[in-house]
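Task: encode each sequence below as structure tokens.

Item 1
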Amino acid sequence: MRYLFIIQGEGRGHMTQALSLAVILRRQGHEIVQVLVGQTPHRQIPDFFFKQIHAPVTTFEAPHFSFTGNRVSLLQTILMNFLPSRLVAFNRSMQTIHKMIEQQRPDIIINFYEMLSGLTLKRYRIKIPMIGIGHQFLLLHKSYPYGRQLGIRGWLLRLHVWMSSQGCSRLLALSFYPLPDDERYSISVVPPLLREEIIESSPTSNEGFLLGYIINNAYASEIRAWSQAHPEQTIHIFWDSQEHPQTWQAEKNLTFHKIDDKLFLKFMQQCQGYITTAGFESVCEAMFLGKPLMLIPSHIEQQVNAFDAFSTGAGIISESFDFSRFINFIKENKFNNTAFHSWIAESDNKFAYLTHIKNGKNIYQQRIKLAFIQRTSHAGSA
């Protein structure tokens, strides 16, 4: 089978998911013929992705978040992405996506939560089956409790998830734990897509330092302030700042690193605990390695991820980089990741079955609906 990937490029999570799925599909004898990545002006696609995907990569301009200080501004995000210049750019992007699909003629398209994918399929009436993959698709699941009581922000988030699901015949919702499938919305619940390097990286150690990953560089000043007040605690932070060298010694005990896949994995294996803005993929990696988590969400999607991860006992949620509170948590708690390991072990079988066509025919019916928008009263704690 010939597969074409379309990936949201905001952060590194969707790209590492794509790398992991590519390995699974190739193990089954399939081919990745083209990869399309939605790029934003303030994010750079990390070098490790180009080196490891082993397929031609084409980028296009995609919608992205707008920040006010450390937090995402929902209003600014909406207004910015509907500027005439942005709409013209998105039109060019859909033309690029259509052109690549026409050139490669894949058997199946895999959409890693990129909204322009479905819009392109509908605009050009493309009949190739598309499968959507992402943790966000759990928000459409009838049994998923998080994100239901967040008012207009939650409604808009689910609307965005629904828009990103358009054109998909089946949604594969990545989850920290098993849930029944929701056939009403063509949702199959599947394990996270972890990189082989993570799965093969045991045993781990505790070298006493804290590790962090931030996609909003405005957090740097807050982290520096804490490290200056606590020189005894070593901290390593990964980011994608273009204004600093590959390795920046901000304080004697604080080092910032540009995103480096191998170095990040090494530090994840050795760290005492992991601090993150609650991006799904790196949370899963920390859980698999048994590393305690401090979750500091900067927008509503990460807030939902944080509530979900917190429910497993893997870490704490914080509104700031309160490392002192996190250190106390590490001393008093230990996360048992045995059930999570068992869930991850099901990945190959589930994805091999759910991302193929039987007898040359699409095994899924297109029936992703808008009805979830009306289910705002569904029970939930977040």
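Item 2
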Amino acid sequence: MQRAHAPESRETKPEREEFRPIEAIRIILSAILIAFLITHFLVSSTVVEGTSMLDTLHDGDRLFVLKQGIGVSDLSRGDIIVFHAPDENRDYIKRVVAFPGEYVQIENGMVYINGKRLEETYINADQTLTSGATDWLVPEGELFVLGDNRLEGASKDSRFFGTISEDAIVGRAAFRYFPFDRFGGI
């Protein structure tokens, strides 16, 4: 009886690569550069402070904000944006209500755009209150924004400081990642 004989295999242990500090530094620097580019040009994170966007957003919600290519022409009515506040050295988060060339009126607690009532299922009050001006014409390159919480004194928005410049826009809020029970797109 003949036995099949397998050729001898010489298992060799893979050579252990030598640690190269220069390679490690390159990898770390590349990761830092990529993270920097992403957070400065594509996506950033923000934390909601206050109650001006109730019931859509709550104090402490953490959001991802899309920054790339966000200008007046890239937005839709109802989008939630982050922008540099015109009256403070901080950022605000509000909802886009009107675009350049549109006429905004607040009458009897209702918002009208070019004479047509704006249907808003996201606000937490039956009325949009105002104590000053009640009508605005949105200039070119600007937006009219409102918080979802329209009770008196609940939101510093375009009723208080007027329209905002396109240059003030940081980005569009796109995704809530905390708290986990409200995790998801906005």
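Check on item 2: The two ends are 76 Å apart (CA to CA). DSSP finds two helices and twelve strands in the chain.
End of task.
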